[in-house]
Amino acid sequence: SSVYYAKRDKFDPLAPLSDEGLQKDINFYIPYAKNFYLKKEYDKVLDHTYKLLVRRPNAEIGYYLHALALLEKPEILAWRHANKILQLNPRSDAARMIRARVYYELKNNKENALAEIAQGIKDNPQSKYAGGYFQRGKIYYETGEYAKAVSDFDK
Fold first, then answer.
1. Which DSSP string corresponds to 69-92?
2. Is the entire prediction scored with pTM above 0.70?
3. Whether the predicted pLDDT of 7 surpasses 60
4. In whole angstroms, how far apart are CA 2 and each of 6, 36, 44, 51, 124?
């Protein structure tokens, strides 16, 4: 149980799914989601709205706030899934490629993108997944480092 739940009434996940229950769920999750949105803590907005939507797939306000958070930080979802993959398999080169794309394509951070790719290649030197070399070659090509790009494309 998270600290920010401490001041709320006890939440009953087994409560019957009634219209009254819907309003209680909205009253429970949405104030936190709105507060986190105003603080620009979009990952927490997504957590709260997701929990509401799992229980109440017809809660329109939940979709609204969830979509707003995703508009602000579209990389959150990809980043979260990549991190989950790394929890399941710390040597996943596929997860490293997702994180590299978030760094490069959404955050314009070439150095961190290349570091993620290098880690994916290092963790999986025998991998049949050639995406790492291709991704790195693409970054090198787009930044004018053509010799490095060709070298990676040839691997």
1. HHHH-THHHHHHHHHHHHHH-TT-
2. no
3. no
4. 7, 14, 11, 13, 37
42-67 per-position pLDDT tens digit: 989 998 898 888 888 888 888 989 88
φ, ψ of residue 65 in degrees (nearest 5):
-65, -35
Q: How many CB atoms lie within 10 A of CB 7?
A: 6
Token pair listed for 25: 């769920």
